[in-house]
Here is the input.
Amino acid sequence: MNCKVEKTKNANEIKLEITVESTRFDEAIKKVYFKSAKYFNIPGFRKGKAPMQIVEKYYGKEIFYEDAFNEVAQEALEEAIKENKLEVVSRPDIEVTQIEKGKDLIFTAVMQTKPEANLGKYKGIEIKKIEYNVSDKDIEHELGHMQEHNARLISIEDRPVETGDIATIDFEGFVDGKAFEGGKAEGHELEIGSNTFIPGFEDQVIGMNIDEEKEIKVKFPDEYFSKDLAGKEAMFKVKVHEIKKKELPELDDEFAKDVSEFDTLEELKKSIKDRLEKDNEQKQKYEIEDAVIKAVCENVKVDIPSGMIETETEDMLRNIETKLSYQGLKLEQYLQMMGKTMEDIRKEYEPQAIEAIKSRLMLEAVIKAEKIEATEDEIVEKMKEMAKNYGKSDDKEFMENENVRKYIKSGLESEKALEFLVKNAKMKK
Here is the structure.
């Protein structure tokens, strides 16, 4: 096999001219013939028993070319990419220039390659100082959640619905006098003031008594997920069956004992404070890293090939699809609910894809510029950790997998590059 590499007029695009020896192509033709011989029915021969020359004469000598090409071309292309140490980021655009039995197979493949980012200033980047402190209000907020979670529900019979109550209701919704799908429920518990219903609905339940029936008029928001209902006026028939009120427990030592492993309220407060401080540290770390990445990327110049953007966008959509599946939804259903097409969501996520690619290329450029390397001990330790997480601690094949090793090495070096950028950044108030 022989390969000529040349750059095209387009940035980060190359053209490979690959020549495959005639003997290799002819062998692929024979292989295809033996695979497909049983399907040929030629007069004078039992089905599948006609010699290759007869089949070629009967159907034309090109009968095996396409399958033989597919047999050889992918393998030859992979060899060419490996030999020339190319990082390809798009599907190849292939064109056959010579294909004939007894002759060398010649074809071209035009592909986009991974670009290198041109770093601008990356050391001494100025970013706004980020700090998060835990206040008494934050602790009270957390305690309030714990109170809500441990509240008792008390039935109310001597007054109408008030804000904060939980009303058990039946309802049925109508648009233009017709009931609509998903607009009916019985025995639904609605917390008044939670704003979980259409704007204006909960306000009109206030003042209703047990067993009272009422017609409530509302308007669906213009941005409502269902196109059929968005911006429409609706009427709901509502009946109140039960009214309950939350009774919050007292914040004292007994409360602390009931909801935690601590004996006093002060101990519980300290525990909450410690947890919030740890959360804030993580939040602060991530936001500083994000700010540094964005600041450095502003100085980076790079032409990102369309193939990279398409691949990254598709990866993002697959992640969305996976997350939706956990909720029992398909991507198509989600799009329908949101009133969007696949093209809409691709365009929506494309800027994020570009940002993610640019960040990765920037970190790779920093790794190269600063000669950052992951040590063998670091790689092995991380591989052991990953193996343990995947239940493959005793899996020798996993520990020796070169692709896993490369992935871990790349991840560790990117982490080090980011640490370097943060360490060398200037925090301003």
Remarks:
- The mean pLDDT is 92.
- The chain has three domains: 2-112, 152-247, 265-428.
- Residues 265-297 form the longest helix (33 residues).
- DSSP finds 13 helices and eleven strands in the chain.
